[in-house]
Model the fold of this input.
Amino acid sequence: MQADPVPDEARLELRRIADRWLTLPVGDAVRAAPALRGLAQALADETAAALGVLPVVVPDLGPAAVVDQLVVTSYDAAAAGLGDTVGERLAELRRALP
Done:
C-alpha cells in the first residue's frame, strides 16, 4: 500500500474547506464554486505538466461536487511531487470563502 502523499497542511486545509462548505448558504456556495473549481483545474493542469501528459478539463459538476474534485486534484498534485505549495494555496482559498 502506498503512503498518502498529501502533506499534513494540505490535508488540514481540505478538511477546513469541506467543513466550511457544508455550512455555506446555497447562494454563497454557487458564487464561490468557480474559485474552488479554478484551483482544482490549476492543480490538474500543473499535475499534467509535471507528469508530461496532456491536460484534462475538470468538468463543472456544480457546487455539490466541487470540494470532492478539489480533494482529488490536490491528491494528484501531491502524488506528482507538487505538494509543497498545495497547502498554502488551499489556505488562501479557504480564507477567501464567504
Summary: The helical segments are 8-23, 26-51, 63-82, 86-96. Residues 44 and 95 are 21 Å apart (CA to CA). The two ends are 38 Å apart (CA to CA). The chain has a mean pLDDT of 96.
